[in-house]
């Protein structure tokens, strides 16, 4: 059976002290009895302290990115081995901000996925259409291509490490959310696309998260849809109270 997951992407927010404060706040406020897996993704420099801080909790730590190469002359980059060596076993790959501002193509992302899987890391694979794609009625094609080119090279056995995160770019950080019906329609399409390529068991078992302006006020309705298995949360993950309410809505 697939897992419910709520993950917070902190992006380039929170220095060391603020990271500790937010983690303490989350430990205080997050519900203990929830069945969802909870994940937070602070910045690279605060990952090690987050892992230490959350050691005896049910909150996992993810990186927001990693390099596709094992090691080498890539100034400023971070490898899978480095992440694993500090206890980070989950990585977000393909966030739309990485695709748009750092030129991460489907081919690069496919490499990143392979490297992460080689290191037994859980991959939260993000994808989603831009506003223009939806206006042109191309959103299903765009999503299908992103899945095919960035992810569908993996083997059946790798799927136990994959979490999908559908994030329509027009809904990220904009306050504009996909309606619960739009989210369900796309999640159902994504599951069907996985089913066609990898079969029923993998399609039914993979968790598909929705991301894009999820807030305490809309989380319940979005999460109630049958193919929405949780959320990837940006802005609202930076406030413990909001994030806790979203987790409680699952
Ligand atoms: C995100 O960046 O993954 C995201 C979903 O952001 P927000 O919740 O702020 O729209």
From TrEMBL:
Substrate binds at residues 9-11, 173, 213, 234-235. Its EC number is 5.3.1.1. It catalyses: D-glyceraldehyde 3-phosphate = dihydroxyacetone phosphate. Keywords: Cytoplasm, Gluconeogenesis, Glycolysis, Isomerase. It is found in: Cytoplasm. CDD domains: TIM. Pathway: Carbohydrate degradation; glycolysis; D-glyceraldehyde 3-phosphate from glycerone phosphate: step 1/1; Carbohydrate biosynthesis; gluconeogenesis. InterPro entries: Aldolase_TIM, TIM_sf, TrioseP_Isoase_bac/euk, Triosephosphate_isomerase, Triosephosphate_isomerase_AS. The keyword Cytoplasm applies. Its main location: cytoplasm. The active site is at residues 95, 167. Pfam families: TIM. GO terms for molecular function: triose-phosphate isomerase activity. Signal peptide: none annotated. Homodimer. Belongs to the triosephosphate isomerase family. Involved in the gluconeogenesis. Catalyzes stereospecifically the conversion of dihydroxyacetone phosphate (DHAP) to D-glyceraldehyde-3-phosphate (G3P). This is Triosephosphate isomerase. It comes from Flavobacterium macrobrachii. The lineage of its organism: Bacteria, Pseudomonadati, Bacteroidota, Flavobacteriia, Flavobacteriales. The gene is tpiA.
